[in-house]
Amino acid sequence: MDQTHARALEALQPFVHLANSNSATSPRYVANIITNATSNPHTYVFAELLETETVQALASPDTPAEYQGYLKLLQIFAWGTWQEYQATPNLPKLSSEQTLKLRLLSLLSLAATAESLTYPALTNVLSFSSTAELESLVTTAVYENLISARLSPATTPPNVNVTAVAPLRDVQPQSLPNMISLLTEWETRCGEVVSDLEAEIERVKSNASARHAKEQAYQKRLEEAIEQRKATGNSSNNTFSGGPSWGKQSSFGRQAPGRWGSGGGLGGNKREADDIDRDDGFWESGEGDDSGSRMDLDEGPASRGGNAVRTSV
Fold first, then answer.
1. Residue pLDDT, tens place only, 141-170
2. Are 128 and 134 in contact (CB under 8 A)?
3. Do the Cβ atoms of 12 and 55 come closer than 8 Å?
4. In whole angstroms, what is the distance from residue 20 CA to residue 24 CA?
5. 311 near 296, Cβ under 8 Å?
6. Which of 93, 170, 213, 237 is deepest in the core (most CB within 10 A)?
7. Alpha-carbon distance 255 to 249, whole Å?
8. What pLDDT was estimated at residue 266?
């Protein structure tokens, strides 16, 4: 609840208790309660006081004529305006405090219907004789936290720009059916908006789920392709990892070239391999003379003349 409204309700409670007390039996006493309640600077709502039996009893034909107008006066303070007070005959005369209060309440009703109020319109509606009186009333309303507004006297026409209004006017009973209808229509629109939002949320969730499933399928295919590529690479490495096999061990501690494997090379021609074994100038260890392997080396040009000198190694 708004703090200003809560303070106004709290300020009204003493008058409600007086109206419900056993001493509130005479119209004069009840009229005095209404006068004090409407004059109090902190009371701005009056519906609870209006609902008391003693106040409603003022509408009885047995009530003296001088006090019958107090019920209507309290109703005007609850939801009426200054213009309504002036247009209604046989109402009690207002004190200065009541006059200020009713004008402030009328300003609240006017501010609730329009954001910009011109000086000429407000001066006419509130029966002011000068703009200074109007500006004083607006300033009081601002300091009492009844409205948030800015005076603009230099504009054409000069106006009061209202930005916020305190919820301090009571609701007239006759307006309740219309308010209920408006609220019901608003509730229906809110329900439609909520349904649209829920449908949109489900659509977004469905799209997100489909997108997630698509990403998972793509990731799975990618991992399968990587595994297949690795398997193909390992198979290729195994095919070429053999290389040439080497033949007999020479007397120098190294292997002499022998036959190649199935990949080709010298192993494909047996005659060439035999020639290499026969003409390489080496003997295997344990064959020939006891000195082991040896090789005859030509001594250069002397071998061309036919009388080659051979040196045994």
1. 999 999 999 999 999 999 999 999 998 999
2. yes
3. no
4. 7
5. yes
6. 170
7. 4
8. 44
